[in-house]
Structure prediction request, 464 residues.
Amino acid sequence: MTNLLVMKFGGTSVGSAGRIRAAAALVESARTKRPVVVVVSAMSRITDLLLDTMKHAEAGDRAGIDSNVRQLRARHHEAALGDIELIARIDALIAEFERLVNGMAMLGDRPARSVDEAVAIGERLSSVLFAACLNAAGSPAAALNAAELIVTDAVFGNASPLMEHTSERSRRVIEPLLRRGIIPVVTGFNGSTLDGRPTTLGRGGSDFSASILAAALGAAELWIWTDVDGIMTADPRLVPDAKVLAEVSFREAAELAYNGAKVLHPRTLAPLLAPGIDHAIPVWSKNSFAPEKPGTRIVGRLSTSEGARAVTSMSNVALVSLESANAALSGVQVMARALDALARTNVEVLAISGSSYRQSFCFLVRSGELGRTIEALEAALALEIAHGYVQPIDVDENVGLLAVVGEGMRGTQGLAGRVFTAISREKVNIIAIAQGSSELTIAIVVHREGLEKAVRAVHAECHL
Prediction:
């Protein structure tokens, strides 16, 4: 399909009837010039509500389930604006969710496969509301469940796409709709295995869904609509004079997302540079609340780039340290065993740093994955810890991550020294440092109470 545009709308962009109408208007404007595929998130805060309901179900808390389902129904009925047929479709999807959570309540458990099927109801509700809004405005649209389009592996909760199968299914379903002038409105965040088991792509994975479909359909562009003006030099809540970047590279955007910038899902850009894609599909990050603003363009390669481009941070992290206590077991062996255990548990390591003399190393993980991390390490190294070959695992949760990102940092003399000096001037202690061989990112772990001061200091020092 020539000149295809994929438009993805985040939770706040579809958070009410008014916001859905505003987003639909953007789609209607775009489709006068080119074919459009829409991808939607769940309405803001709905995913949290669904997950909370499943926790109540696991605990057998019927009152909690009923209260949350009432909120779910009321929120979507309100957005339906009295449309009887639309309300009936909403109620059917909510009944499907109730069936799943009632099953969890009977089991006293939340099986991963059932969680993936249940939590995707939020996006399915959004797609129905969005398609109905377009149809009411005279723009033919059809709500599609991405479980029928995006084929994934069986890693429930954080699946990865199988692009060949996804491309075949997506083209078979979507291209006939586009030829008939119908706008496909696809659920973000979810997919299914080859044998039809429901999966999800990780929290916030609707961006990822959009890029998967853009790659699968050979789109000309992907526009991601959020509630911010684009990718900024820093979080404006921490740095009031942060600026919107007009253009960033794919690698810069991916590093910023991976290290805490909330504009994109960390895996969003991967499908757009996958083998078989002739060229990088340009991505725009735009604000649906201020569509007149230009946003940020994300491209495969920048024509010029000098020094650091942006600084980002994460506070919901924990630093895990391991140290060999016996010469019979080298630090390399400990590291290999530990990283293998984390890989098998699907834990994401944000940064890693080591010491050659003491044969020790530390790595950073998200706080939400700390429990799984410790469980995996204790299982993998149980004998070594018990017999004194490895020191007890040390965890520091009072830390934060600061990352300085820029394609132009490579080979820039004195930049790292300036960054460290700026942080030290604020009397913030640096605990660990990690920098990859590409020199694209300098990751710095500091005490959490000094994180915000460090971000502001680095932003000022690098003249961002």
Remarks:
- The domain at 5-227 is CATH 3.40.1160.10 (Carbamate kinase).
- The longest helix spans residues 84-107.
- The CA atoms of residues 30 and 36 lie 7 Å apart.
- The chain has two domains: 5-227, 310-461.
